[in-house]
Amino acid sequence: MADTQVEPALRERPMSPHLQIYTPLMSMVMSIVHRMTGVALFFGTILLAWWLAAAAIGPDAYASFMALADSTIGRLVLFGYTWALIHHMLGGLRHFIWDTGRGFALGMVDLMAWGTLIVSVSLTLVIWFATFRMMGAM
């Protein structure tokens, strides 16, 4: 008999909200992207370690790494790593500002989220443009 009394209460429990229920907000999207860039940085750091190890091992190992890095796919990966690094850093600064108790006004939250995206893309493009310019590729 105790089971029949508990069962109706279980049926009336509310479901936990999920991404399919919420309307995506810019700050919510940036939170998800921040986590994704963190994962990308983990794997990108393996490439960074490979580059440093290849430089330490010698010219042949370094040439092997550079052959991959100079390829189209390699440059796309390095471009993505650059963007992920900058975006994650700016997202961390945004969270740091929130940790001080500032920036919680509704308009400011959206402004900071858009700013993180726009500034990260802009800085990535500036860094890559400057790098190609210094290399004489432009």
Automatic annotation (TrEMBL):
Q: Which cofactor does it need?
A: heme
Entry similarity comment: Belongs to the cytochrome b560 family.
Residue ranges annotated as transmembrane are 32-53, 73-91, 111-132
UniProt subcellular location: Membrane
Q: How does it assemble?
A: Part of an enzyme complex containing four subunits: a flavoprotein, an iron-sulfur protein, plus two membrane-anchoring proteins, SdhC and SdhD. The complex can form homotrimers.
GO annotation, biological process? tricarboxylic acid cycle
Q: Which GO terms describe its cellular component?
A: membrane
Q: How does it sit in the membrane?
A: Multi-pass membrane protein
Specify the taxonomic lineage: Bacteria, Pseudomonadati, Pseudomonadota, Alphaproteobacteria, Hyphomicrobiales
User: Which keywords belong to this entry?
Assistant: Heme, Iron, Membrane, Metal-binding, Transmembrane, Transmembrane helix
Entry's Gene Ontology molecular function annotations: electron transfer activity; metal ion binding
Give the source's domain of life in one word.
Bacteria
Species of provenance: Candidatus Phaeomarinibacter ectocarpi
The record, for Pfam families, names:
Sdh_cyt
Protein name as annotated = Succinate dehydrogenase cytochrome b556 subunit
Record bears the keyword Acetylation = no
